[in-house]
Every structure is written in structure tokens, then in C-alpha cells.
Amino acid sequence: MRPYYDDPYTTEFKANVTECISREDGFAALLDNSYFYPTSGGQEHDIGFIGQEEVADVIEEEGRVLHIVTRKIPIGEAECRIDRKRRVGNMQQHTGQHMLSAAFDSLFGIETVSSRLGEYIGSIDLSRQPTEAEISQAVEAVNMVIRENRPITVHYAEPGDVGSFHLRKPPKVDGTVRIIDVKDFDMSACGGTHCTHTSEIGVVLTGNVEKVKGALTRIEFFCGERAIRRYYEMFRSAHESSRLISAGIDDLPVAVQKIKTQIQERDSRIKDLSGKILESICERAVQRVEGTDESLVVVDLSSEIENTEDMRFVGSCVSKRTKKSFAFHRTEGNISYMNLNLAFEESLATSVMSALRSELGVKGGGRGGYFSITFEASEKEKVVEFVRSKVGNG
Ligand SMILES: [Zn+2]
User: Fold this and answer.
1) What is the distance in A from the centroid of ligand 1 to the CA of 34?
2) Span from the CA of 180 to the centroid of ligand 1 (angstroms)
3) pLDDT classification of 392: cutoffs 50, 70, 90
4) In this structure, is residue 43 part of a structural domain?
5) Per-residue confidence at 213, pLDDT binned at 50, 70, 90?
6) Which of 34, 284, 379, 394 could potentially form a cystine with 344 if both were Cys, beta carbons 3.0 to 4.6 Å apart?
7) Distance of CA 172 from the midpoint of ligand 1 (Å)
8) Domain boundary pick from 26, 53, 82
9) Global pTM?
10) How far is the CA of 98 from the centre of ligand 1 (A)?
11) How many Å lie between the centroid of ligand 1 and the Cα of residue 117?
12) Residue 154, number of CB atoms within 10 A of its CB
């Protein structure tokens, strides 16, 4: 029987250090009577002090509670102190979880399949997705019972007697079962630390809802102090957003929607204008290709075109309007992008492309004599000369 089972609020106590064992992560101190809670049953461990030594972790190994410290603690009596804020936060979060799960179960027959308490955010996985109205009703029911300040008592049932308690879920342990009884609301088997009256939880709020595996739905929750912390985090975030877009907090959804619509309209106008600009670049490129006697017209489009997609568009557009060979290119950092139009018989064009790949290591491809390729920018002259020699022969 652990002392915190029936006395979760004692956080300062005297105990004897009976052993202090050296181990990889420091030392493990053992106490003859410890109120420190070891990580178990989804609840986080306590932290605190044994004498002057900080307890960073508390774990259970082979039935013994080990207090992990960095320096060896002498055998004998020591003043012990548990971080009360963290302990009470865990109790609020844990008791709130029992009650939230109980509310979903009794009101809507939605089972809690698993739960996580965490150091700040808790969550439960429900057997099906509740509606927003169901979530509100469950939260309201829990907070009503919290305000009624009902007692929360602990029972110990021997295996043969467990059936006389109306447990929400069957117990997972053999032997004596510890039962947490929120008066006329929930009975659950659990080994964690809980509040002794419902009002000690303060408040229970839910957060994000997300689908997880199959029909399972995960709902975040925050109890007591953590609910207050969460409220202020969200308030600050909403307040800052409202300042940035000069709208009241309550008007944020409408204001954000308005900005989103404006952005969409602007994007669509930019797209129209870009299309016109590209057409005009294409027009000039056709004139450059047509207005020369060179067998291969090489044009650097780096200053006119910002991305490869646009260059491909211009290249493709020009290839449909000329019977001449051209190479449009632009360089980004160490890489050159080229759109190559080889205006001669297709099988010959394809063999030139193959040779470019095998002899100069260019990447990419295409068909119908029109190719999109990339290569190291330093290779540009070589690529151009190679193509020029082939075109000269074509
Ligand atoms: Zn519990």
C-alpha cells in the first residue's frame, strides 16, 4: 500500500533513505515511506527534493519506487518535498479524465478506449466521433458535478467482490482492485492520484478534436490550472491575431474569411497578368528565333523568367510556332534549365537527347523533338556546343 493512495495531498514529509544505488543515469534512492508517485497508469511521475538533492524522475522497478537523483544521498532520515503544483495539476487532470470519460459513456454510450494524461495536455480516444453538441453536453455535465463538490472516495475490492461495484470498465489488474468513486457519477479502477472532492478539479475544458485510427476520435482536455493556462495562451494568440488584422476577437472568423477572399481574388488577377506577360515574352521569343539565320538560336531567359514552369510554357508555345531549332535556358544557383527544340526528324532528335544524357550527363527528357533538361551550370557551353554540332549536321 503506497501512502499517496489514501493521502494524495501530503507533499512534505520525513522519511529514511534506506539505500542509494549507483546506476547509469545517476543514483536511485529508496525511502522507507515515500509519497512520491512513480510514472505509471498513464500518469506522470512527481518531481521534488530529498534533502538538498533534486529528484528528477521517479520510477517503479520490481515493485520498488526508485527516486532518481544526480548525487549519492547518505543513508538516514531526510526531509522530502514533492513539487506540489505539478502533483495537484496531475490530480486535477487525472480526476477530470475519469469524469469526462464517464460523461461520454453515460450520456451517449461513447467509450474511452485509451487516455493520455501528459505533463500539460491530456487526451482521450473515444470509440466514435461525438458531435460538437455532444462534446458541449459532456463538458457541461462534468463541470456541473465539479461545482456540486461531490466527495471522491477510494475503495479496495478483493477479486471476489469487484462485481458488487459498478465499474465503468473491467479492471486490468489481478488481486486487490483500487476503485475511485466519484459519488453517483463514476467508479473506475485506478492506481493514480486523484482529488478528494470534485470542486478541487476547478474546471474541465476540451481542446482539439481529431480522427485517429478507424472510428477512434482523440479529444484533448485541460483541467484546473492547466485549463486556465490554456485559456490565456489561446486568448493571447487571438488577441495578437486581432491586433495584426485590426479586428475584434469576436470578429476574427469573418475578418479572416474576408482576407482569404481578397487573397484569392488577387491571386487570380496575378495569374491572368502573368499569362499575358508570358504570352508577350513568347511573342518576342518567336521573333528572335525567326529573325536570325543561325541553325540553333540560343536565348538566355534568366532575366525575363522566374521559374522553370514558366520557361517550359514559353518554350512549348514557341516550338508550336517555328520550324527552327532553339535552346532557351536560365540558371538558378549551380543548375541550368534548358528547353530544347530540335527541329529535325524525331528519331534523330531522340538520339541527340540520348547522347546528351550519356556523354554530358544531362538529366530530363521529352518527345516530338522538344526536351526539358537540366545540367550543372558550368557545363552550359559544352551542352550548347554539342547541340550546335548536331544541329549543324542535321
Ligand atoms: Zn485515475
Assistant:
1) 19
2) 7
3) low
4) yes
5) confident
6) 394
7) 13
8) 82
9) 0.76
10) 6
11) 10
12) 14
**CA count, 13 A, side-chain hemisphere, 164:** 7
pLDDT attached to residue 215 = 86
Determine phi and psi for 343, rounding to 5 degrees. -85, 55
What pLDDT band is residue 345 in, cutting at 50, 70 and 90?
Answer: confident
Closest by alpha carbon to 369, among 310, 335, 323, 328?
Answer: 323
CA of 333 to the centre of ligand 1 (A): 59
| pLDDT (tens digit per residue) in 168-182 | 998 888 889 999 999
Residue 354 lies in a domain: yes
Q: Ligand 1 mean position to 93 CA, how many Å?
A: 9
CB 3 within 8 A of CB 15: no
What's the helix, strand, coil split of the chain in %, to 5?
40, 30, 30
**What would the grid cell of residue 10 be?**
501530503
Rounded CA-CA distance 220/295 in Å is 68
- Per residue in 99-131, pLDDT (tens digit) is 999 999 999 999 999 999 988 999 999 999 999
Mean pLDDT of 44-67: 95
At residue 394, the pLDDT reads 45
Q: Is residue 256 part of a domain?
A: no
H or E segment at 335?
A: strand 335-341
Cα of 15 to ligand 1 centre, how many Å? 26
Residues 235 and 120 both lie in one domain: yes
